């Protein structure tokens, strides 16, 4: 039997540290706590701001405002402004804005749209007859509806509270929705995608939103969607200004078609993997709620 014997020096390493428990430490801690406490409010402010500005910029510029305000896109000089090719205006003969003055993105089309927005009067409001007329439009008919379990086809419309208020005031609309109220409530309960729908009316599922639906106006012979002055390169304002629409009289509701304008994400991307056939088949994907 062999025994190895060795002496190994052992020491304890110590550093003297002055406790930070004075007034300055309290100030530092307070600052850090202020940042942490402000985080939820700042996140809420950002989300609410993007709710207002997101649709406005996406509709007219094709990009969100936080992208366009970077140095690369300064003044929007690299972005082609273009209004939607399928715009319907209450009170306009034929309903749909035509291309007689030029195709979408042409100056004539934008000027005509600006003019027609300015021509909308106090009596040009949504009614049951308006919704029936929209249903008959060829471009609306080309939108593939969602077929409910009972076979009923539905298309989706998002209206501003002001728009919905005038629609409810229409006798024809009230009569029809009251007649099918119980069946509409059952339909909404049975279909999660209809959660939040206010009314079902002759092929339309109608929702209400005061942030996704933008006020619009004529500004310098151009259409303007969203808060006043949003087209300008020096557009500024605060959240209370963005969310204020009490002085606006014309609003642009949305009909959801086959192309998404915006995408909402409820959770971050989480990588997932799966193995099969005793490890011979391996797959990698991601899980996200959007």
Q: Summarize this, please?
A:
With 290 residues, the protein is an alpha+beta fold.
Structure description:
Strands 1, 2, 3, 4 and 8 form a five-stranded mixed beta sheet that branches. 34% of the residues lie in helices and 16% in strands. Strand 1 (146-147) and strand 2 (153-159) form a beta hairpin. The protein is of the alpha+beta class and 290 residues long. The protein contains nine helices and ten strands.
Number of helices: 9
Unreliable parts = 1-6
- The first-to-last residue Cα distance is 71 Å
Shape: globular
Radius of gyration: 28 Å
Approximately how much beta-strand content do the residues carry?
Answer: 15-25%
Largest sheet: 5 strands, mixed
Helix content: 25-40%
**SSE string, helices as H and strands as E:** HHHHHEEHHHEEEEHEEEE
Question: Please, what is the oligomeric state?
Answer: single chain
Strand-pairing-aware structural class: alpha+beta
Report the average pLDDT across residues: 77
**Strand tally:** 10
Features:
about 290 residues, alpha+beta, five-stranded mixed sheet, three-stranded antiparallel sheet, 9 helices, about 35% helix, about 15% strand, globular, disordered N terminus
List the helices and strands and how they pair.
Elements lengths: L22 H38 L4 H4 L38 H13 L8 H9 L1 H4 L4 E2 L5 E7 L1 H8 L2 H9 L1 H10 L8 E3 L2 E5 L5 E6 L2 E4 L13 H4 L8 E2 L1 E3 L13 E7 L4 E7 L3
Parallel strand pairs: 2-4
Antiparallel strand pairs: 1-2, 2-8, 3-4, 5-6, 5-7, 9-10
């Amino acid at each position: 039997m062999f025994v190895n014997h060795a002496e190994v020096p052992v020491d304890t390493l110590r550093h003297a540290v002055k406790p930070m428990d004075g007034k300055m430490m309290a100030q530092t801690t307070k600052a850090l706590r202020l940042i942490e406490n402000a985080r939820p409010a700042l996140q809420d402010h950002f989300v609410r701001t993007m709710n207002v500005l997101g649709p406005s910029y996406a509709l007219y510029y094709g990009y969100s405002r936080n992208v366009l305000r970077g140095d690369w896109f300064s003044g929007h000089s690299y972005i082609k402004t273009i209004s939607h090719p399928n715009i319907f205006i209450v009170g306009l003969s034929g309903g749909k804005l035509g291309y007689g003055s030029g195709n979408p993105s042409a100056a004539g089309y934008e000027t005509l749209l600006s003019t027609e927005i300015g021509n909308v009067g106090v009596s040009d409001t949504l009614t049951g007859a308006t919704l029936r007329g929209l249903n008959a439009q060829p471009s609306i008919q080309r939108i593939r509806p969602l077929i409910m379990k009972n076979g009923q086809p539905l298309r989706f419309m998002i209206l501003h509270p002001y728009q919905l208020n005038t629609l409810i005031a229409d006798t024809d609309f009230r009569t029809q929705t009251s007649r099918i109220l119980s069946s509409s409530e059952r339909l909404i309960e049975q279909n999660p995608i209809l959660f939040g729908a206010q009314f079902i009316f002759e092929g339309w599922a109608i929702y209400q939103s005061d942030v996704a639906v933008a006020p619009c106006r004529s500004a310098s012979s151009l259409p303007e969607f969203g808060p006043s002055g949003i087209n300008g390169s020096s557009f500024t304002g605060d959240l209370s200004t963005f969310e204020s629409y009490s002085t606006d009289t014309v609003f642009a509701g949305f009909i959801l078609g086959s192309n998404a304008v915006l995408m909402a994400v409820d959770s971050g991307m989480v990588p997932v993997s799966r193995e099969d056939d005793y490890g011979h088949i391996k797959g990698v994907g991601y899980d996200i709620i959007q």
